[in-house]
Amino acid sequence: MPYLGSEDVVKELKKALCNPHIQADRLRYRNVIQRVIRHMTQGLDMSGVFMEMVKASATVDIVQKKLVYLYMCTYAPLKPDLALLAINTLCKDCSDPNPMVRGLALRSMCSLRMPGVQEYIQQPILNGLRDKASYVRRVAVLGCAKMHNLHGDSEVDGALVNELYSLLRDQDPIVVVNCLRSLEEILKQEGGVVINKPIAHHLLNRMSKLDQWGQAEVLNFLLRYQPRSEEELFDILNLLDSFLKSSSPGVVMGAAKLFLILAKKFPHVQTDVLMQVKGPLLAACSSESRELCFAALCHVRQILHSLPGHFSSHYKKFFCSYSEPHYIKLQKVEVLCELVNDENVQQVLEELRGYCTDVSADFAQAAVFAIGGIARTYTDQCVQILTELLGLRQEHITTVVVQTFRDLVWLCPQCTEAVCQALPGCEEHIQDSEGKQALIWLLGIHGERIPNAPYVLEDFVENVKSETFPAVKMELLTALLRLFLSRPAECQDTLGRLLHYCIEEEKDMAVRDRGLFYYRLLLAGVDEVKWILCSPKSDPSLGLLEDQAERPVNSWASDFNTLVPVYGKARWATISKCRGVEHHGPELPNASCATSGPLVPAENKERVQDLPDSGALMLVPSRQLTAECFEKTWLSLKVAHQQVFPWQGMVHPDTLQMALQVVNIQTIAMSRAGAQPWKAYLSAQDDTGCLFLTELLLEPENLEMQVSVKQSKTRTETLHSFISVLETVIGTIGDFKS
Amino acid sequence: MRRGCWEGKAGQGWAGKAGQGRAGAGFPAVRGESLLEGQPTRVLLFRGRRAGQAQLLLSPGLLSRKAMISQFFILSSKGDPLIYKDFRGDCGGRDVAELFYRKLTGLPGDESPVVMHHGDRHFIHVRHSGLYLVATTSENISPFSLLELLSRLATLLGDYCGSLGEGTISRNVALVYELLDEVLDYGYVQTTSTEMLRNFIQTEAVVSKPFSLFDLSSVGLFGAETQQSKVAPSSAASRPVLSSRSDQSQKNEVFLDVVERLSVLIASNGSLLKVDVQGEIRLKSFLPSGSEMRIGLTEEFCVGKSELRGYGPGIRVDEVSFHSSVHLDEFESHRILRLQPPQGELTVMRYQLSDDLPSPLPFRLFPSVQWDRGSGRLQVYLKLRCDLPPKSQALNVRLHLPLPRGVVRWTSRASLGLPAKGPPPRLLLWGWALPASPLNFPGTHAPASRSASSG
C-alpha cells in the first residue's frame, strides 16, 4: 500500500510488533517483520519502529534475526542512539556456538555505518579473524575493510594489515580473495595491496581452487605483478593458459587482459591470445543475453582497431537480425564497416543495402553512413549502391545519401563524375537542413558538371523567404557565388536577387553580413572573388588524417575488459574528465607549467630567433610541399624522433598554425578543432635542404601531445634543435590554454 | 589436448616447451622463501611491501580496480522497486532506483542502455523476465564479470523462488534479501554456488499456485510433453530447489533439456545467407548433492570440421564448451559426460554451429510480392511450410511482418486464423501452435493484401 500515509502504516505495525500474542506466535511475528521490510523496500520511512525491531532481534529464530539485522543496517545511520542498544545482542551473537549466527552478527555489526561503532566491533573482528569456521573468517576479513572505511582517516593499523597478509595463506579460497579485497581498500592511500613474488606465486598456485568470481578477481590483482625474468613470465602464461578456455566469459577476458599486459613486449604472443579469445568473444556476441552481446561487440571493435583482419572471416556473425534492439544493430553495423576486406566486401555491402530500407529511419541512416565509410576504400561499388538508393525517393534516405556524397567527393575526387550524374532530381526529396546544405554545397562546387545546377539553386532562391534554417541560406550564398564564377551568364540574375534579399530583407544578422561581404567583394572585382572563394575541391590527404591508423595493442590493453570500450573512448574521456576535475583539480596545471616553463609569448619570440645560432639550425620559408608530395615522403621515411609534450584542453588550429608560421614551419594538413583524436602534419626545411616532417597527435584523455618527427637526412644535432623549436612553440600555445 | 605452451621466441610457437618436457611439470611451487614456513619469516616477507613498492610499475589505470558494486536493486518493468540493497553506503541515497529508471526511459536512441552513468556512478543492468536487475558501481569494473554476475543472480533467484517474475519476487522478499546477503558482502561476490548457499538459506519459498493441467501456456522448459508418452506436464520448471526441507516425499528427479536457438537469414530469392545454431544442454537436478551422473551423447557426435568419422554426416558442432563440474575423461572415447550436478539449474554443455546444417530447417517461408502501381495495392503472399519430423510439433509459432509507413489500409486473409483489417499498424503478427506432420499441416497459406498509398 504505497499510497497509504506512512504514519498510519508505522502506527499499525508498531502496535502489531508490541502485541504479545503476535510475539508469541513465531510465524505471525515474522510476517509482521516481513511487512516492515517490504514497506522499507518501497521507500517508506520505517525508522519509527526501530525500538520494536531492536526488541525483535533477541530471538532464536534465525530468519527473523536476518530480517531484523537487515532493517537495522538500513536505519542505523538515522537512529544511532537506538542502534547502540542493539550492539549488546549483536555482541552476544558473535560468540554464539552456531557459526552461521556468528557470521551473521559480525557482518551486520560491521555494516551498521554509524559513528562510534568502531570501538565495539574491533574486538569481535579480531576474534573473527581467528575463528575456526571459514564462514566467520570471510566475514571478519571484509569487516576489517568496513571498519577502516568507517574511520574515515587514513590511519592504517599495521598489526591488522600483517594479520590480513598472513591470512592470504588461509585454507578457504574465499577468505584468500576477501583478504586481497580488504587489503586493497585499507592500503588505498599507499597504492593498494602489493603483489610481490611470493604472493603472486601463491595466488597462481591457488587459482584452480577458486570459483569463477575469485579467478576473475585474482587475475585482476595479478596485473600488478611484474615478473622478474622472461622465463618466469612464460611460466605464468603457461600456467594460466587453461583459463583462456574457461566457460565463464569474465574469466576468459580477465585472463586475456593479463596475457596482453604481461606480454606487452611480445607482439606475437598478444596476437595469439587475441586469436584464442576470438571463439569466446564470438560466442558472447551471439549470446542470448543482449547485454553481454553488447559488451562483447564493443570489445570486438576495440580489437579491430589494432588487427583489422581479425574477424573478417566471421563477418556473417555480425549480420543483424530483425528482433535485435537498436543499440546492438548499430554496433554490428560499425563492426561490419571495420572488418570489410576484399573477400567479403560484396556480401557485406549486400547486407548493408538491405538495412537501408529498414523500418527504423535511424537504423537505415546509420546503414547509409556505413556504406559511405566503406566507400573510402571501395568507392565504385558503394557509389553505385548509394545511387540506387536515391531511386527509392524516400526523404530520410535521400538526405543522408547526399550528405555521404558530399564527404566522399571531398575525400575521393575520383568519384566526382558519378556523384554529379546521380544528383539531379534529389532536391525534391530533401527537407532537412543538413541534407539541403550538403546538396547546395555540391551544386556550388561541382556546378559546372551538373547541367541544371543553376536552375536548382534558382528554385532555392525563389523559396528563400520561407527557408527556416540560416545555415542553408549561408550555404546558398556561397554556392551561388561559386557557381557564378564558373557559369556567370546563368547565375547573374539569381545571384542579384539573392543578394538583394539578404541585404534588404533578411533578419538573421550572420546571413545579412555574409551577403554584404560578398557584395563588397564583388565590387572589388571578379579576380578578388576567385582568389578568395576558389579553394581546392577535394582533399584526399584528409583521409590520411581521419584514417584510424592501426593502433598498437598496448595502447588499449589496459582498457580491455573494463567499462572503457563499452562506453566508447570519447565518452569515457568526458566521464573521467568531470571526475578528474573533482579529484585532481589543482594538480594538473602545475604539472604542465613545470614542463613548459614560465615562458610568455614575447620572450618566446626572442628565444626562437636566438635558436638558429645556438643549434646551427636555420629554417627557411621558401619550400611549399604539396599534400601528395608530403604523403609520399612521409610514408617513405622512418620516424627519427618521438616525444610527448604535456597538453591540456582543446586545440585552436588557427593559433597553432600562426605560431608555427612564425618559426617557418608549414602546416600541411590539420584536423578540425575539437576532432578526436586531433592530428596535424607539418613540414619544414632548413638551409641545407634537409626536410623535417612532423606529425602531431593529440588524444585528449591522455593530456599529452605526441610528436613524431621524420627527417630526410640523418643529422642528429639539427634534429634536436628542430625539436626544441617545436617544443617551445607547443609549450607556448599550451600555456595560452591553461 | 594442448597443454599451454607459451614461448618467448617467435616461430617456435606452441610446441617449444613440450619438447623439453617442461609443460607437464606444472608451475614450480614457491621456492626458498616459502609461504608455508614458520611465522617469523612470513611477517618479514610481507613486511617488504614498502620496499617493494619502488620497483612496481603501477600505471594509474591499474591502480584502483576493485570489483565491487555499491548497490543492487530489482525494478519491475514499470519501474517500481521490488528489492533494494545498499552494500556500501557510499553512493547517495535510495533515489538511485528512480534515477536509473528515468535515465533508461529518457535515453537518446543511439545510446545503449546497458551501461549508463550519472556523475561518477555507473549503472549496469540486465533485463530478465521483464525485470531489471541493476547494479551500481563507482569503479571501472569488468563488464563481462558484472553482467555474468547479474545473469547468475537471475538464475539463482529463479532457482530459489521457483521462477523469476514480479509476483514471485514480491512474494519472497525475505528470501531474496537473505540470498543477496549471502551472495554479496560489502559489494563483493562471496559465492553463487547453489550447493554452498543452501546451507545458509533458511527461508522457504512461497510458491504461487499449484500447477494446473489446464494451464497449457506454461508448458515449457523441463516439462514439455511428447507424443509417445503423454505424461502430465511437470512443474519442475517453476519448482524451487529448497522445497525438500518440509516435504519428505521429494522425488529424486533430474530434468534434462536441449535448448537450441537457431537464427537463419534467408535472401529474398530463398537461398540461405546465414545459419547460426546456439545450443545448450540444460540440467535441473533435484538429486541429493554428490550423486554422480553420466550423460551419454550419441557416438556420432563430433566437434569441428576435421573430426568427421564413419558414414554419413554424423552430428557435428563447431565449438563446444562444458561446465567446470563436468569430467571429460570418457568424452574422447565414448562421448560420455560425467558430472556431479549441484542442485538447481546448470548448463552442462554449450555448443555452436554455423553454416552447413546437417538437417533441413524446421520452417520454410515462400513469400511472393505483387505490386500494382495503378491502384497502389501491394499483395503479399506468405506460404509457411513446417518440415519437422512427424513426432515433433511446433508450439507458439509467430510471424511478424513489419509494414512501411505509407500503408493506409490493410486486410488479411489467413488460412489459419481470422481475417482481419483495420487501420494500419506498424507490424502484423500471427501466432499459431502448428501441428507437426506434413500431412496434418497443409502449408499455411496466409495471403495478406494491403492497399498502400504511395503518398
UniProtKB/TrEMBL annotation, chain A:
InterPro entries linked to this entry: AP_beta, AP_complex_bsu_1_2_4, ARM-like, ARM-type_fold, B-adaptin_app_sub_C, Clathrin/coatomer_adapt-like_N, TBP_dom_sf
Stated family: Belongs to the adaptor complexes large subunit family.
UniProt gene name: AP4B1
Transmembrane segment boundaries: none
Any GO BP annotation: vesicle-mediated transport
Protein's recorded name: AP complex subunit beta
Topology in membrane: Peripheral membrane protein
Organism from which the protein derives: Camelus bactrianus
Origin: domain of life: Eukaryota
UniProtKB/TrEMBL annotation, chain B:
Superkingdom to which the source organism belongs: Eukaryota
Protein name: AP-4 complex subunit mu-1 isoform X2
Organism: Camelus bactrianus
